Amino acid sequence: MKVPWKWLMEYCRSPWSVEETAERLTMVGVSVENVVHDSFEGKGLITAKVVSVFPHPQRPGLSVGYVDAGGRRYAVVSGAPGFKPGVVTAFAPPGSKLPRKGSQKKQGPAEDDSSRSGPEALEVLARDVHGVLSEGMVLSANEILTGEGPRPGEDILIFPEGTASGLPLDEFLDLDDYVLELDLTPNFSHCLSIIGVAVELSAISGVPVRLPKTLASWSFLDPAGSLETGDDSSAAAWEGEGPRIEVVLEDPDLCPHYVGKVIRDVKWGYSPIQVERRLYLAGMRPINALVDATNYAMLETGQPLHAFDLDKLAGGVIQVRRSRPGESIVTLDGVVRELPPESLVIADARGPVAIAGIMGGKETEVSETTRNVFLESAWFSPRSVRATSMRLGLRTEALIRFEKGVDPTAQVACVERAAELITRVSGGTPLPGWSRARAFEPPRRKTVLDLRYLEKVLGQSMEKDQVEGILRRLGFSVQDKDGDLEVSVPPRRVDVAEQVDLIEEVARHLGYGSFLGQPLNVTVSPNVPAVAVYKERLRDFLRCLGGSEVVTNSLCGPDDIAAMGWEADDPRANPVKLENPLTSDESLLRTSLLPGLLKGLETNKRYKAAGTVIWEIGTVFFPSKEELPLEKLQLAIAAYGVLSPKTWNAPPLEADFYYMKGLVQSLLEGLGVDDVTVEKRAGMPFHPGRSCKVLSKGVTLGEMGEVHPLVLEKYGLDRRTALAWFDVEALRAMSREPRYQPVPRFPRVERDLAVIAPEELEAGAIERLVRREAKHLVGFRVFDLWKGAPVPAGKKSIAFSMIFGAPDRTLTDDEVTLEIQKIVRKLEEELNVTLR
Amino acid sequence: MDENKGSLSAPAMSLLGEIGKMEQSALTELETISSEQELEQFRTRYLGRKGLLTAVLRRLGELPQEERPVVGQRANALRQKLEEEITHRDEALRREALARSLEREQLDVTLPGIPFRRGTLHPLTLALRQILDIFVGMGFSVFESREVETDEMNFVFLNVPPGHPARDMQATFYVNPEVVLRTQTSPGQIRGMRTYEGRLPVRFIVPGRVYRRDPADVSHHPVFHQIEGIAVDRDISFRNLVWVLEEFARKFFGPDTRIRLRPSYFPFTEPSAEMEVSCTICRGKGCSVCKYSGWLEVAGAGMVHPVVLRNGGYDPDEVTGFAFGMGLERLTMLKLGIDDIRLFYSCDTRFLRQFA
Question: How far is CA B248 from each of CA A259, B134, B352, rounded to the nearest angstrom?
């Protein structure tokens, strides 16, 4: 909503500057996003009197005349019908400037100086017009406001007789103005009108609202609303001749109140320049005086209105009804629109003539040929018009008001106001009374405001008078009821339904700044869930291990899923789909953190990182039989490339299987996960020969390993890449809280063995055997591995170190030797492993 | 001793003379010794069992009884002196050797050290930890709630029935007509309140991911994070809300931070407020970040709407409550001076490694 300042001031004169007014409005909830100084772009334009006019020597239809611009005379060529001696008009002398063309079209919501760049204002020069030098131009309203030529049928401006020559036009026409650009929350639909904003301003400043007589007489602002609209219409109110319009409410649930008003014998034309200027400032485009009057009244009151050409309405009937299957309409903008089922339409005997509350039809619009006008003023169901608008993808100024709910008592008052504005400019005779149908009696809404409750909610005591005063200034009426306040709500305040709404009215006009903080005085011992604590423990360990935590999108696309190479029946290949994604890339809920991390590696590779380690803890989603999908917490780690480059004194550290395994082992150790084992071969996206499942006490916790080359190729990763992922709940179940274990008091004995083993034998088999057989074994570590000469083909040499120790004594050499001998024997017997 | 010289026998005199010469030559020799090995040889030659001085001492027996102590003392004095000299020399030699070895071992200290990989936490994690600490310190429990929600939980229970214009404020992703990706952490208010089963006081925060159907740009991302807070008790007031928000702002942005509340609209609170803090960039003077207003919007807040209290299992005639919600990304951006929300999701370690 854009509020031209001078227009607002007509209804409530602010005691403050524009900026301060805007600030004060914002602080009561009428959020002013921007204050724009809309200075008139034309420069040097003046009033001038036409002194004499002659036919153009070359061109019939053109005239040459002298104008007197306050002492100076100019010879001017013009074809305007109003260019006649004695007329005072608008004049652009040579060297003056007109607004650049199209300057009024670009009125974006975020108006600042940068968006106003573009062509410069148009300088007017003396120029030759078919052999006659024209020293400047006489001007139409459109030229003055937009820099473009006169519209069809538009004459030059003609000022009242006696207007002086040489007056600066912007001052004379009062064109300079400010615009308050409002960013209203949905509950502030009562400020979708200049008068609505004026009421708020009045409540802040104490300056009363002044209304045009037509509106004032309808008690528009009172809690009672405009209920005393005489009787309803009826044919009895018709006078004179011409078609009679009967209004039929076929679907009173969607339209319970419809008012039509006929104005006969209007003259077609354009609005006065001041009206057009205001419409532009308010963000609307002037069309013609008839349409402009309905828009002007809408901006003023918040009640949308529509003007039909009465003579184009067929059958003397207006039906307000749901659309019928297959019906369509050509709307004012020239677009053919299929009407969605259940759309509320206005129809005549032939069919729809308007989409109720959204846009009128082309066929019945007012035009140059219009003589008689049928004005519509109605109340439409917000939900219905909103649903239709969404289905059509069509939002209009009318809809924005109807969808929030307009004052259900304003229809008659506002149609009268529009009729008044029309006759003022276009002449014509409004017929007394209305074509009207009403299927409801707007309820008078009363709410009791319990002052003790108000004090409890706001936390401070309030004077009753103060509360009453605020509510009264906002148009509520207040009566004492057993110490509480019985408050009547003005019908236009559709947002106020219950007590808390009144409390907000009081609080916002008291000023939120007047509430001083008061400490919470009840002590609570807060509870942090174990999972949340565990997540932070995981993060701390992972930070120690050297990667960077990342946060990636929970939304992914079919390409991400496909890139992983999961089998079709893998749950991870069957994600939850969004019904209305923005893009295909973000159309699914992730089933794994791995695709996001691989993309993250790719990003860093693109930035020329030699190597990257990143990790994430986040939710993954799976379809479920329940109403809501399954949400599981996952941890994943990804490493790519050279993590420490080769230096002058050390070899490079690469993101291979063993790097990831070491990282995972450290993590699990830190978390207190015991009995960790690995099982070769994890599924996609892992390398089948360089991956494993990770288990604790036989329960699978996750997978880790290097990435399958086909997957790497999809992400353009050309160096070693390793991944690991874990189910956080599974990890948590296997994690143990640290508990003190006695520190060994007796020395430990370390023995090394080097053995020759079959090449395919896993080191883990040796370790398992050793751990099973050896008494007092407290540590086992493989420290060397060798294949090739002098080890025979098909064999490998493995060297490992074992640590022995007893909690209660120092082991003797003999004891340890016995253990070693047993191990050596068993290795040979069971695994065909011999001492080197 | 000198006055006795004249009275000594010739063999004694001769022996003393030998000792004197030995002393001179030994001391001279000692000065030329440059290794511990030579020093050991020197010791053996003079002081060893077959050494020169030992040989002299053996010859004491050839002297008359009364002269032996005199010569013996002289010989022992020399032994003692040589031992001391050897020790000194030894220490000097070790010092020199150490100095030489230190000299040999010196490094180019300008060469780089071994690279240790310092891990980093995400800036959102760092900020969230700080925020949780602040609220837990004020007695708020932590409640984590689901991300995919029913339309009922995300909207209807929060006083946003179908067709409500407030649904336009948040572009929603749908899984099906009844299931949405939560557009706010507010459904956590209902789920969280219900876990209290009517007990008082209720006081918890809900951190988590939310989703809006907005294309990504410098200030929007379809996935982002919020922190929701709610307190319900017999006499929770708007002024309690003001206090909590002020405490938070001062602890998170610094003690000089001022806050300002202005009326706003959320269907689930009434009265509703937009919370602004004095601009963290310009300190309220006006800059491009605060659009020259001196204030930054950081949170929505208000008194819990009776409908929401009822849906959480509380009687609005008995209790009142406040609630607030804020964007984690926005708070973090303002605090750290980050100008593009997309950086958080970029995985770009050049960005991420700045905040550990």
Answer: 54, 7, 25
Domain that holds residue B198: 123-352
The C-alpha of A548 sits at a distance from chain B's nearest C-alpha, in angstroms, of: 5
Over residues A146-185, the pLDDT tens digits come to 888 889 989 999 998 888 988 998 888 888 899 999 999 9
Residues B302 and B249 in one domain: yes
The pairing of strands A611-622 and A548-549 is parallel
Q: Is the domain of B135 the same as that of B45?
A: no
Paired with A208 in beta bridges are none
Which residues, other chains included, contact A540 with Cβ-Cβ below 8 Å and sequence gap of 6+? none
| Contact (CB<8Å) B270/A500 | yes
Cβ-based neighbours of A202, under 8 Å, separated by 6 or more: A12, A208, A209, A473
Q: Which of A404, A603, A628 is nearest residue B165 as measured by Cβ atoms?
A: A404
Chain B residue with minimal CA distance to A605?
B348
Number of inter-chain CB pairs under 8 A, A vs B? 248
Q: Which of A387, A508, A614 sits opposite B347 (nearest CB)?
A: A614
Residues A32 and A119 in one domain: no
Give me the tens of pLDDT residue by residue for chain B, a chain 356 residues long.
Answer: 444 555 788 888 888 888 889 889 888 988 888 888 899 999 998 888 888 888 888 888 888 888 888 888 888 888 899 899 999 999 999 999 999 999 999 988 888 888 778 899 999 999 999 999 999 999 999 999 999 999 999 999 999 988 777 776 668 999 999 999 999 999 999 999 999 999 999 999 999 999 999 999 998 999 999 999 999 999 999 999 999 999 999 999 999 999 999 999 999 999 999 999 998 878 778 888 787 788 889 999 999 999 999 999 999 999 999 999 999 999 999 999 999 999 999 999 999 999 97
Cβ separation A459–B223 shorter than 8 A: no
Instruction: Compute φ and ψ for A192, nearest 5 degrees.
Output: -85, 35
- SS (HEC) of A92-125: ECCCCEECCCCCCCCCCCCCCHHHHCCCCCEECC
DSSP for A121-175, please give it: PEEP--EEETTEEE-SEEE-HHHHHHSSPPPTTPPPP-BPTTPPSS-BHHHHTT-
Domain boundary at A455, A477, A512, which? A512
- Please indicate, yes or no, whether residues A86 and A166 belong to a single structural domain of this protein: yes
The shortest CB-CB distance from A631 to any of B148, B179, B243 is to B148
Domain that holds residue A230: 225-438
Domain membership flag for residue A85? yes
Q: Is residue B161 part of a domain?
A: yes
Nearest to A507 among B119, B175, B238 (CB): B238
| Subunit contact A524:B213, Cβ cutoff 8 A | no
**How far lies B339's CA from each of A548, B281, B296, B329, in Å?**
21, 12, 14, 11
A234 and A361 co-located in one domain: yes
Q: Kindly write down the DSSP assignment for every residue of A610-636, as one continuous string.
A: SEEEEEEEEEEEE--SSSS-EEEEEEE
- A522/B201 Cβ within 8 A: yes
Residue A632 and residue A586 share a domain = yes
Are B203 and A520 an interchain contact pair (Cβ–Cβ within 8 Å)?
Answer: yes
B105: distance to nearest CA of chain A, Å? 16
SS3 state at B323 = strand
A625's tokens: 């039989």
- Looking at A438, A464, A497, the residue that finishes a domain is A438
Nearest CA in chain A to B180: A578
Give how many domains chain A has, as a whole number. 6
Q: At A496, list the tokens.
A: 């106020």
Strands A795-804 and A777-786: what pairing?
Answer: antiparallel
DSSP code of A743?
P
pTM, two decimal places: 0.86
What is the rounded distance in angstroms from the CA atom of residue A463 to the CA atom of residue A387?
44
